[in-house]
Amino acid sequence: QELRPKSLDIKQEELGDMVEKEMASTSEAIEDAVRRIEEMMSQARNESSGVKLEVNERILNSCTDLMKAIRLLVMTSTNLQKEIVESGRGAATTQEFYAKNSRWTEGLISASKAVGWGATQLVESADRVVLHTGKYEELIVCSHEIAASTAQLVAASKVKAEKSSRNLGRLQECSRNVNEMAANVVASTKSGQEQIEEKDTMDFSGMSLIKLKKEEMETQVKVLELEKRLEGERVRLGELRKQHYALAGAYDATEDGEAKPAPAPRRGILRKPPLAQKP
């Protein structure tokens, strides 16, 4: 009983309904994500300014574009699924078709859940970044996760779709658009992080003379430490290269698999050749 697939515990009509419910739930999650991003945008404009406002707006705008692309992807995927069911079920009902193709149905449900979950996580990460309680890396990871979930949804839909299907072509185009928008989120996040970190580390306007002198001395110490570490790493790199060249050129493999020392270079091979005598 424990080894039985979970899908066997679900009735035919329940499995068919689960697909529609999951796609509807994913659409609702995306709509909610768009609303939350709009709320975050207005909140950011009221509570931040300058560089931080510019960074927040750029990140949230890229997240909005990504959500719109995901919404179109889900709508297109839903249309393709209806087309697949209508062309493949024959005299069977929709629920019977889903039950007969339970593995494929479970793949659709799993992919749809992954897309909805990724969108929710992206919004939560963006919220924390705007409030300065989260990490920029979270947004990058969520963007990669959404791209992977999108590929999973396209792959699951492609299994049963006709190659000449227009909806399949639209779905693949939507998938490429989602990947592009996810890449924009990553790019805007990285550039925003660099702007914020540069501003935070280079803003000395509120420091006193004593504080500035202390920061100057601490920075000098860090510079000396980094220079010493860099020198040590260069020496280490040189020794590693020497050992590499020694191991690579010391032995030549023989025909029977044994190793023999490589022939020593002839003396004077690098000498300047004698000038040609006049005839």
From TrEMBL:
Subcellular location as annotated: Cytoplasm
Domain of life (superkingdom):
Eukaryota
Q: Which UniProt keywords apply?
A: Coiled coil, Cytoplasm
Q: Name one GO biological process term.
A: clathrin coat assembly
Q: What SUPFAM superfamilies does its record include?
A: I/LWEQ domain
Q: Does the keyword DNA damage apply?
A: no
GO cellular component labels? clathrin-coated vesicle; cortical actin cytoskeleton
GO MF terms on file? Answer: actin filament binding; clathrin adaptor activity; clathrin light chain binding; phosphatidylinositol-3,4-bisphosphate binding; phosphatidylinositol-3,5-bisphosphate binding
Q: Which organism is it from?
A: Aramus guarauna
Name of the featured protein? HIP1R protein
Instruction: Note the coiled coil stretches, chain numbering.
Output: 207-243
Q: Name one Pfam family in it.
A: I_LWEQ
Region listing for Disordered, in residue ranges:
252-279
Q: Which InterPro entries does the record cross-reference, listed alphabetically?
A: I/LWEQ_dom_sf, ILWEQ_dom, Sla2_fam
Chief location of this protein? cytoplasm
**Domain I/LWEQ, residue spans:** 7-248
Which lineage?
Eukaryota, Metazoa, Chordata, Craniata, Vertebrata
